[in-house]
């Protein structure tokens, strides 16, 4: 990911008054409208910008284009909101350092190695959150869609988020290992497009499984009687 702006809550969340555990997931179209622009901005566009600059301007031009893309996003947010999230500034600093190291070593591998290792760390974070009883998938889900505490405390909901955290741990681990193999065994052009396509497909399948599982969980939980 290039831009790490925190997502805004999704609209149209409905739940019962305090004491109940019923919850309704926002419509799929609303979630897609929320997620798609961020996916294009954070995944597809940086790859396209880097590859186009690599073909036209060479490695150094591609590195400059990548850094320009990130700081352009920072400037756009500042003009729109008057402030820039701290995480986004750290992302800009990280990309600058990576680009500087890649330019100094004349190796694009250096530029892509750090985020790949970061993906491996994210996988470990998801995995570690399960035995701790604080599933990371639940934290990320509630950041995007506010959910009532009574719903989150339901045993079936807790089990769901533990299992989904394991799923996403495996997804990120596969992503990292495949990316490392591609990075050290294929050209940068092949790495950019094949890796992006495989990771996108893998992520889409994981999202589909997560949504399907969550809807099944909702069906069972919402079908139970609400405590008096």
TrEMBL record:
TM spans (from-to): 48-72, 84-103, 109-130, 160-184, 190-214
Keyword Membrane listed: yes
Keyword field: Membrane, Transmembrane, Transmembrane helix
Protein name: DUF3159 domain-containing protein
Organism expressing this protein natively: Actinomadura craniellae
